[in-house]
Amino acid sequence: MTATAAPPAAPATAPEGFLRRHRSTLLAGLALLFAVGLAIVLGVGTETATPMDPDNPGPTGTRALARVLDEEGVDIEVARSAAELEELDVDDQTSVLVVQPQLLGTSTIERLYDHTLTADSVIVAGAGPGVADAFGATGGGTTIPLGHGRDAGCDDPRFDGLTLEVDSTNVYPHGDCYTGRAGAVVSSPADRLLLFGADQALTNDQILRADNAAVALRLLGQDRRLVWYVPSIDDLTGDDGVSLTSLLPDWIQPGLWLVAVALVAVIVWRARRLGPLAVEPLPVVVRAVETTRSLGRLYRRSADRDHAAESLRRAARARLAERLRLGSTTPPDVLAREVARRTGRAEQDIMAVLGPSGVVPSTDRDLITLARQLAELDREVRRT
Which of 33, 98, 132, 148 could form a disulfide linkage to 140, CB 3.0–4.6 angstroms apart? Predict the structure, then answer.
């Protein structure tokens, strides 16, 4: 008996061999995709374009300052509306920074005062005209250039020996630090309240000029906790927004309701008087040919041959324009030129028959002759 040979082992499939050979490459690619996705979720997802926002990496943002403060151990909490600010606890170990104060209304400023009564300090950056008045710096908020820098010139340890340099700043009439002929950049109109006009010194593109970084860190790093308030556009109106309803007197709404009710009553009253609509067929049907003959008899009786001739010419011009596909608004001279080209007649002869300034028939025979000429002209055009 002969021994049968064992069948050869089946070769590995192509996909299994490919995965075995490129396993390390695939694992590295998956790890890279995971890292990119994680960076998108954790990094890009928190960016914003709002000016003076600590999550804004752009030139007008303040992400650089916020990260340095965080590295120095300052706990930063961001509130982007008056409602979010009121949800945060503020105590005597907390500083409050208010940016973009032009977005605050009268009522939101009052709410800010009430909520920050126990704060260690409240810093308002960039308060302009009107807003400075609301914070107690009457007549302040004027904007001046500060491109060459300005020394502190005061004994305040937060600014002593530091030079401030920004493109432009707001100044206030009463203040001790960074003073000039137009006013001071820093003002303290009330206890624990400080107006800092050079808000540009906090932004990413200007914080490295002169001693701006040191000024910002000393100003905002006084406490271990900092509430960063970025108002929204809704905070501009707050509870005192001006709208059409607020400008109208209190009695206008009941008056409008009364007018509406009276209008509905008048409609119901008049509709009942008129009664339902009645549909009634016309008593007679006048055929078009009878209308034409009746108009002809009226023209003949009144001897208005001028009107009759113009009616014939007008109808002939409409028919010819339709045949020649020129449109109903074609001028008579253009129509006469095209008719002359089609029929071979002289353009002057065509205008004498067809034009609105043609000869006015003096007798009925002349009117009949004009009608025949127009009919003959229509036949010639139809033949061509």
Answer: 132
Beta-carbon contacts of 161 under 8 Å, excluding residues fewer than 6 positions away, are: 152
pLDDT at 90: 92
Phi then psi for 358, rounded to 5 degrees? -70, 180
**Domain spanning 47-236, CATH class:** alpha beta
Spatial contact of 211 and 162, defined as CB atoms under 8 Å apart = yes
DSSP state of 187: E
pTM higher than 0.70, yes or no?
Answer: no
Residue pair 104/157 in contact (Cβ under 8 Å)? The answer is no
| Residue ranges of domains in the chain | 47-236, 288-383
Give the tens place of pLDDT for each residue, 301-337: 777 788 888 888 888 888 888 888 888 788 888 888 8
Instruction: Please tell me what DSSP assigns to residue 34.
Output: H
Would the CA dihedral through 380, 381, 383, 384 be positive or negative? positive
Nearest to 305 by CA among 359, 350, 354, 376: 359
- Looking at every residue in the chain, the average pLDDT score rounds to 83
SS3 170: strand
38-64 residue pLDDT tens: 555 554 446 788 899 999 999 999 999
Q: 95: which residues sit within 8 A by CB, 6+ positions away?
A: 119, 120, 121, 122, 123, 220, 222, 223, 225, 226, 227
Q: Cα–chain-centroid distance for residue 83?
A: 26
State both tokens at 321: 């324009």
Asked whether the predicted pLDDT for residue 66 surpasses 90, the reply is: yes
Please, are residues 152 and 159 in contact by the beta-carbon 8 Å criterion?
yes
Type of residue at 82 = A
- In DSSP terms, 241 is beta-bridged to none
Residue with tokens 């009564």: 117
| Cα–Cα distance for residue pair 278/282, rounded to 1 Å | 13
